[in-house]
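User: Fold this; tokens only.

Assistant: Input:
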Amino acid sequence: MRKVLAILLISIFSLSATVRADEGMWLLSLIGKNYEQMKAQGFRLTPEDIYNINRSSLKDAVVGLGNAGSSFWHFCSGELISGEGLFSTNHHCGFGMIQSHSSVEHDYLRDGFWAYKKSDELPNEGITAQILVRMEDVTDKIVPHLNDDMTESERQNVIDSIGKIISDEASKGTVNDAQVIDIFNGNQFLLFVYTTYRDVRMVGAPPQSMGKFGGDTDNWEWPRHTADFSLFRIYTDKDGNPADYSADNIPLKPKHFFPVSVKGLKDGDFAMVMGFPGSTDRFLTSFGLKEAMMTNDLIYNIRSVKINVLRKKMAESQKTRIQYASKYASCSNYWKYSLQQNKALKKLNTMQQKLDIEDNYSKWAARSNNTKYGNALNLLKEGYADRSDARRAQLYISECVFRGPELFSFAYSVYSNIEGIAAIKDEAERSKAMEKLTKYINGFYKDFDPAVEQMLIAQMFDYAYKNMDQKYRPSFFDDVQAKKFKGNAEKYAAFLMNKSVFVSKAKVEQLLKSSNLDIVKKDPALLVANSAIAKVREIGKATKEANTNIERGNRYFVDGILQINKNKPIAPDANSTIRITYGNIRGYEPRDGVEYEYYTTLKGVIQKEDSTSSEFIVPKKLKDLFYARDFGIYADKNGDLPTCFISNNDITGGNSGSPVLDAEGNLIGLAFDGNSEAMSGDIDFEENLQRCINLDVRYMLFIIDKFAGARNLIDEMKIVR
């Protein structure tokens, strides 16, 4: 977006823009505006083939994965690949589910998992799969009720109220769920209607040595050789409607599923990605960029502490390795991302280009004679400056108290839930709430190791105390510094683990039975949680005006950009709604004298093998297949087995697992990563460097067929040769 705006704003009298076809996460219902560009790049279908509410279309085969209670926020994407509800996504998307089913006796992380018949498939309570039914622009139903005299809070209340009426009406009398969400920083509004499926079962996953091949070393890097896929199936009731898990449920009969192509691909081929990108900040100003880079630095440093603890403890025990595998993966992914994004932003000189955009915007705003456009940047400047120190404090509390150790958020959640359940008058409702809480507690202790927790508390509290501004430290730090502990965080952590009821599952179960909260009101873990939350609330009140200025300033700024570009297509920032991005398969030159090919093969897996590193272990069976050259129909024209490829599609987090489609809508890959040289992409799209890293479906099929011997799954699919 930076280059678009630079062109836009050079001339005050003749402001125009050109949007590159490979930049933008476009709304499906408006893709017709991009159709000519898509055709020029090789697309052979029509806009109606992508999005159609009257007949099946590509949208009907795209899956958004979420969690019950927050199913509209999609942590990953997936694609239906059979007429029996089978869908693929990334291994790292299914990692938490694979881990939850794993134990020392059944180590599916290490060994992989394959269901050779449907009765072997494993349920995943709390996981949802959404498929888009339709979308609609409802801006005209909301904006007339808004005005600039409203406070941001008043404005949001009106939006929420009308949005609920619209979404309730859209889902009334159906099995669907609906959501009204804003785009362009609250300047436009869209209705999305989804079918939300609640019975999602695990079908297959390669061993972690293949599904996470390369580990942290290769994460965000190209060339890549990772078999990043897992397989799941959606089930419905006998009438085809969403239902909770039941042995009587049947596989989904989808409106559409993607044929899987083994025809091969070449440099320059058309490629498009459909999925649920989480969030981008392409309209971010220099003030927001400064805060974002500070946030990245701080999170990288704090999570380095957590990662070192987890690495040490996971290496000591197989049980701990399994318990913390998913937690480690989640932590390390953003840990490396934050480091690489700042490197890319500095290398691309994004800050200066943001300043140039703002300079030209100010000139346009002065000519517009509209005070809101003229005030936008001042509001942002003041807002970000006023909350700068407080923002750092919020991050320390969040990362060191609630996202580092687990005990404090758990203690607060259990206490609050017991308190809430006691107030429920309806016995059936109360029983249901208690059952839900019990499941949460069981899940927590299944993957909780007190020794790991104690070390995390000690090291993260010590780090926070040494680095936080004194005036923002929660009051519990006074206890750490008191005579009893004399600032020794290790002693304080040992005290917490020894005295807190919440360390023991048996004691928490006893608490549930008695529902007597008086016995834990002074529990040390709960006191830490309450102290931290009190400080967060205090900071929230102090920064309310700053946050309001930022929200209003962003809305005015983006509205100005839209006014400048009235007749030009601009993609809204990602917000976990379904999007499409199109481009081509293409290599790149990361630096002088280095040129990367657009694909990799199994040969690279063998070359990277390192038996001394857990990140580069190659299973014996995979090596046997390689040396036997037993690749079947999945080999390329040279007789090699493709593993991954890259394209210049515009993706971000949430797109993981998204289908990569050819010009005819056949599945050719699964998007799973971006390249480190362009980690600025969420803020600053760099056309020459930004690449989408994809698993080649031929490698996926080869593993299912030749490595796992799961022909039952191959037989479900429509293979295009």
